[in-house]
Amino acid sequence: MKLNGDAFRQLWKPLRLRQLPGGSHLSQTPSQWENPTTNTPSILQLQFGPWGEDIPGDGLEYCGPTATLMAIYYLYNNNFTQLAPAAYGGEDDKNATNLELVLGGLMQTSSSGGTTAGMQPGVWAYLAACGISGNPKSLASSSKPDLAWFTSQLGPNVESDPDVIVLANFSVGWFQQQGTSSTYKRTGGHFLTPLVVPGSDNQLVLNNPAPSTFVKGARSALDNPQTVTVSPIPADITLLNQEGHTISDPTSYSQVITAILGPDSGTGMLAVITGGSAWSIPATDLPTDGWQPAPWQLSADQTINTNGGNLTVRSQLQGSFSLTKSGPGTLTLQQASQLTEPTTVSGGYLGSQQTDGTPFGSTSMIVSTGGVLQFSPSGSATIASAENAASFTAGGGAATLQLAGTNSFKVTIGGYNDSSTPNIQREPGGTLLIAPGSGVEAFGWQSDAQQVFVAGKKANLPVVLSSGMVAPWLLGVNNDAASSASFLTYDSSSGFQLPTATSSIAVIIADAKSDMIYQVVNLQTLDAGAIQVAALQMNLGGIYGQGTLLVGSQQSGDVAGVILNCALLGISTLAFGEAEAVIYTSGIIGAGTVTSVIKGLGGLTVCGPGWLTLLGNSASTLSGTINVNSGGLGAAGPGATGSADISVNAGSTLLVAAAVPGTVTVQQYGTLYLAGGTVAGALTIESIGSTSDLPGGTLQGYGTVSGTATIGGIIQCGPTVGLITFSGDATISNESAFYWQLQSPCDNGTSTPGTGWNALQFLTPGSSIGADGAVRIFLDFSVIGGDPDSGINPTFWESDLTWTIATFPSGATPNCSMTHGNFIYTSGAFCVCVTGNVVNLMWKPGETEWNWCYATGTARGSVRPQESCSAMRRAADGV
Q: Angle formed by the axes of helices 119-129 and 94-106, to 10°?
């Protein structure tokens, strides 16, 4: 629900913010904190975009981050302004969305399994990043909190002359009655924000990220705060955990009682309180004049997944442990790191506000799978500079060193000076792009140059080939709009710089030599024969003809380089021999099209922001592994990818418009887009993490998978609606999520699957959807302008509707279990049911999930609204 301005102002009418002397700092600790009930904003986990679409899994499993976010804003409203950039601004607040994403990443919240063991470490990490002092003694946690625990822990927030302020959350487990017995089995869980204990009638006041889980029909931010009763579990009740094992001493647990929860509610649902956490933050951490962020002393290796958000670490990182930056988004260090173990960037950006010295510390640096190391150097700076102990590694996938700004600078990489250990190393399939802020022309010896050096001597330095360039897995990237690239050379007096290249204006391709870096800037034709060049860079030009162009040494273990800066490579044959080929494409649409037959036994690595489109038939000539590191690879012609196996790495896309015979593996954050083509080999879509923040790979579009398919990630419509057909056995596991998109106001009566909406077709009886647990289905009405409650297309939603979303072979009994994602609407109800060999999505106006889908039993695999939040477990007590 979106609040209009008047409703939002009414919601926040009680809010009073203390004015800060001097604009941003307090001069002393207040005599009492602001009232938690009126100063904790109501934030719903589904309100980040329409139906929560700005959050992974539409926010359905993000009750943990949302409960914590509300508590953080309470602290902000008490002038702990280092915890958020501004006060909460309502449903469209982009800062709040950013914090929700960051918290979800720090807590390792799964879009399918919710928040489990990562809750407490995630909150600690966020507080530490903001410069809050503290240690484990500052955390009071309980696996069986009762009302006395809440009273004690929340006390400082309402008492006079407080020494601390408390950030708290707690969890309940949903327990479903088994038949008419007094036995209840756990089915899921939920996190909430406790506010105050009023002191009467065993009540607790709280904010609920999903208010309808406690109060039927409560779906608005205006439905918080909620007042509930807390009481012990009665002695005659038996509790079972999710595995069906009896939980010992159930009377030691407390429960939340509301009109729809409790033994006497008639709903058969209990909300058992299964955990509580309360962080006591010293009042001395108020950002008064002279306040400095406390150091973040790591006690273990630390992973920070920014999860598509941006986080600035105010504190200085210290300790004998490593840091890993993962996931999309940006992590920025405000102070130079003092960690002594390696730093890894395995996704998104790791930046620093430091401009010289050791912005990222002196330890080894590993950048991989789409990671970017970024800062704006000014003067001299070093990366991975620990003497004879640190180096820079381009890991598997794409790696980028982005040196922003136009200042002159000198950046030195590596710390080895032993004449033998390379200071820049490469893992198989890795690529490293160095992008100076003023473009590659700024490299060199001149006084205003942007210089990048490598420390050491002899084998510590990059190897310069006989052609005068370094191996072409290491390239320079320009600052133009297309991010065009160039080969690099290295000189110990000037660092990296542009090598000497031979222009096609000076030498036609027929006269090119094997030691030339050949730069094509016009149209060239090779009608017959074979010509070999050391490397090929094409800037707006093209090569045609029936000849053969050999690039690189053709030797096993070597790398051959091709750069396509908006160019067409139309020669008959492009040969790499036994060498690995690296092809970079710039970011201009159509930047790289290759119609040639590609001959190569060493595989192909694709990098750059643009699309490489392959049209030639290389079915019998291209083998090895194709790594799609960044940008996109289009398999647009028959046999375009040869017999090679393909790995679609983070941040990249494989488009299949023809047949791909090899195996295809879509890694985390990677995408396979079927554009009418066929994947004939085995297909694997990496899984959404059930207990982690891994998002899985993505399958989208329309086409055929004829090989065995194992899918654990996201299936969605993509740019074009259609039908995905599985002619081989397909297993869609319970980690998966299916996003259904309606293209127009239509259903089975007026349109068909694959035309009016995206759908799946299975041609073998051995295929299954959710054989190991229900697969979630999410509904997307963005194309038609609004969902059933939006008031758009009202006549359409007044009728019973049916859409076929999956079919199995005639006569087969589908092995199918699907459950709802964002199915809760006020104007009617959706459900998923199986009829014969068909799986249908159904809509009935004027009904609710409760009395239609559940009461009639037609929604196979569906779960009650209370079960829509995370299935949080606590191994310590068996709950």
A: 120
| Dist. CA 569–CA 338, nearest whole Å | 48
Amino acid at 51: W
Q: Tokens at residue 525, please?
A: 């034709």
Stated pTM of the model: 0.92
Under DSSP, the state recorded for 5 is H
Q: Give the Å distances, CA to CA, from 879 to 170, 248, 271, 582.
A: 14, 9, 12, 52
Assess contact for 654 and 646: CB atoms under 8 A: yes
CA distance 6 to 19: 24
Q: Is 579 within the bounds of a domain?
A: no
pLDDT tens digit sequence for 416-473: 999 999 999 999 999 999 999 999 999 988 878 999 999 999 999 999 999 999 999 9
The reply to whether 511 falls in a domain is: no
In which element (H, E) is residue 392 found?
strand 392-394
CB-based contacts of 501, cutoff 8 Å, min separation 6: 487, 516, 517, 518, 519, 537
| Cβ-based neighbour number of residue 505 at 10 Å | 11
Q: For Cα atoms 821, 112, 773, give the angle at the middle one, nearest 5 degrees.
A: 85
Q: Give the neighbor-by-neighbor strand order of the sheet with 379-383.
A: 379-383, 409-413, 450-454
> Can you tell me the distance from the alpha carbon of 701 to that of 632, in angstroms, rounded to the nearest whole number?
15
Domain total of the chain: 3
Distances (CA, A) of 553 to 168, 432, 560, 561, 575: 63, 20, 7, 10, 10
Q: Do 236 and 305 reside in the same domain of the chain?
A: no
Q: Are strands 645-648 and 664-666 parallel, antiparallel or unpaired?
A: parallel
The answer to whether the beta carbons of residues 355 and 378 sit under 8 Å apart is yes
Query: Both 37 and 71 in a single domain?
Result: yes
For the chain, counts of helices (H) and of strands (E): 7, 65
C-alpha 640/C-alpha 729 separation (Å) is 25
Full domain range(s) for residue 378? 295-497
CA distance 393 to 344: 9
Instruction: Identify whether residues 179 and 307 lie together within a single domain.
Output: no
The residues, any chain, with a CB within 8 Å of residue 752's CB and separated by 6 or more, are none
Q: pLDDT tens digits, residue range 479-512?
A: 999 999 999 999 999 999 999 999 999 999 999 9
For 681-727, write each residue's pLDDT tens digit.
Answer: 999 999 999 888 899 999 999 999 999 999 999 999 999 999 999 99
Taking alpha carbons only, the member of 611, 606, 586, 629 closest to residue 439 is 586
User: Residues 391-423: pLDDT tens digits?
Assistant: 999 999 999 999 999 999 999 999 999 999 999
- Determine phi and psi for 775, rounding to 5 degrees: -90, 135
